[in-house]
Amino acid sequence: MTALIGAWILFYHYSHQGPEVTLITTNAEGIEGGKTTIKSRSVDVGVVESATLTDDLTHVEIKARLHAGMEKLLHNDSVFWVVKPQVGREGISGLGTLLSGAYIELQPGAKAPSLPSISC
């Protein structure tokens, strides 16, 4: 009976997960697995699971999991970028991340076929 309950919990957990997204970038500054969130329009839509170097050691591969139902945000032209404090000619941006830490912003694309892997 215990094994059956355990199997049901595993099935329920994995069947209610959102899509995994792989992002390739030049560095992982401010990105932490299990902590860094993915947001769209200031709403949490996922979380970074891990950040590792690519096989050729020249880039960082970020594995992230979107919440269930958020696959509608992923399209060929979706854009991801890291939001962190910055000072430039245009002014100061990302001040909210001083306390909360960096996060990844997701700008949904137009309705087009979804992609499992996106470079940013």
TrEMBL record:
Any one Gene Ontology cellular component term annotated for this protein: plasma membrane
Compartments reported by the entry: Cell inner membrane
Specify whether Lipid metabolism is a keyword of the entry: no
Superkingdom is Bacteria
Q: What is the predominant subcellular site recorded for this chain?
A: membrane
Q: Which UniProt keywords apply?
A: Cell inner membrane, Cell membrane, Membrane, Transmembrane, Transmembrane helix
Decide whether keyword Aminoacyl-tRNA synthetase is in the record.
no
**What is the protein name for this chain?**
Paraquat-inducible protein B
The source organism is Enterobacter cancerogenus
Q: Which gene encodes it?
A: pqiB_2
